[in-house]
Amino acid sequence: MFAYYFKLGVRSLRRNPALTALMVLTLAVGVAASVSTLTILHVMSADPIPEKSARLFVPQFDNGQVENFTPGADPDDMQMSYPDAANLLKSGQGERRTAMYGVPAAIEPPRKDIPAFQATGLAPTRDFFAMFNVPFLHGQAWTEGDDAKGADVVVLGRETAEKLYGDTNPVGQRLMVMGFPFTIVGVTDTWAPLPRYYKLIGGSRFGTPEEFFIPFSTAIRHETQHAGSMSCNANRDPGFASLLTSECTWIQFWFETRSAGDRAELQNWIDNYASEQRKLGRLKRNAPSKLYDVNEWMEKLKVVGNDSKLSAWLAFGFLVLCLVNTVGLLLAKFSVRASEIGVRRALGASRAEIFHQFLIETGVVGLVGGVLGLVLAFGALALIGMQSKGMANIAHMDWQMLGLTFVMSVSAAVLAGLLPTWRACQVTPAIQLKSQ
Asked: How far apart are CA 313 and CA 307, in angstroms?
């Protein structure tokens, strides 16, 4: 019977086409508005590395000045000073650990037909690539020895490598970076986690991935200026050497543990470390040290802001408004078919059969509305993506959202059709037959 009722539902679309088109369009607009907004919220709030998110941790110390400090307040900056980063790298804690900061660099292509250009990269330690599951197209990460001596080696992003060398493997070639000859040891494959959870401070959280990577120690040895934010709570002497000994926070740090259960042990260690530093006259605010896993870190830095959540609620409110209008249109559509319902009841159709028939018809309306809503949602996301490169990276629909579009549309239509369908079932056959 379902197939038969489904065919009746398809045929009913041709009855009163203006009313049907208005219902489909109303439903489609409501679904498109809610789905496009929900898609962006889904991309922004999704766990970017679910297989590891409970094992990756950001430590946080508050090394600000005591003056004007309110106990319990957040630190002035969520990053870390170089003395703390260096100590944590040497600690041996966790399975892996990395310090990093953004670095700008002038790159001089080996090809004469390409002028020198400015690129933005990242200066992490070797563990970065394994910690964050960075795939490699050619070569591999630099060695621990390269980290130790600050070797002039570089890993290129795929787009940068193709821009400079085309489809050839550039591993082993020399490239002028920051005015120094660097040896290319690897090329990363396409890797663009959204959001860029590993470096949420400084730069776009939904922007393009880094164009190159050099060792953290190499960037320090070359006194490479950072690309990102910095917080200094006290005056310091000018120069890079003074920055390294200061309490300025400008480095981001991550630990990886063997299991999520090792968190307590790591927390205990950083608490002891902070206590030792206070004995040396540092961390004067005496604020508690904290650990954040990936999802907690994203929540702490408000990757999904209140504005985005409010937009989603407003979009769903608009969908509810569209459903109310759809209910009214369905009541009008079904009311003109009272005589048809009376004849069917007189011929033996039960109220349950009438209910199933009309409910399936509303499902057909929802299915058509879902197709149109999907088209409108793609158009809305395309318009949103034109606003900026960062928005273009998140304004795309995955299979989950595709499926949700149809489920939401059909469910919304069925929900809207419950009252009109129930009203249709209340038709009294005798009254309708007498009126014919």
From this structure: 10
